[in-house]
């Protein structure tokens, strides 16, 4: 499926419990042209502006 631009954002509470399935999912998303950006839940709560800045920075990256 073609996309002009794609990004998958994931928030995490703690260390991933399913690292192998995460890696498989990431591989599929990356193969489809997505970039993966992960942020911690506490960053969303405590540093939302920084999270938005990170997402905008990643979207602007070519």
Tell me what you see in this structure.
- It is a single chain.
- The protein has 62 residues and is α+β, with helices and mostly antiparallel strands.
- Helix content is 52%, strand content 19%.
- It contains three helices and two strands, in the order βαβαα.
- The protein has helices spanning 19-31, 41-46, 48-60; strands at residues 7-12, 35-40.
- The chain has a two-stranded parallel sheet with strand order 1-2.
- Helix 1 links the parallel strand 1 and strand 2.
- It starts with 6 loop residues before the first strand and ends with a helix.
| Beta-strand residue percentage | 15-25%
Largest sheet: 2 strands, parallel
Residue-averaged pLDDT: 80
The poorly predicted ranges are none
Helix content: 40-55%
Q: List the strand order in the largest sheet.
A: 1-2
Structural class: alpha+beta
Distance between the termini: 19 Å
SSE pattern, N- to C-terminal: EHEHH
What general outline do the C-alpha atoms trace?
flat
Please work out how many helical segments DSSP would assign.
3
Overall number of strands:
2
Radius of gyration: 13 Å
Topology summary:
Elements: E1 7-12, H1 19-31, E2 35-40, H2 41-46, H3 48-60
Parallel strand pairs: 1-2
Summarize the model shown:
This protein has helices spanning 19-31, 41-46, 48-60, and strands at residues 7-12, 35-40. By secondary structure, the protein is of the alpha+beta class.
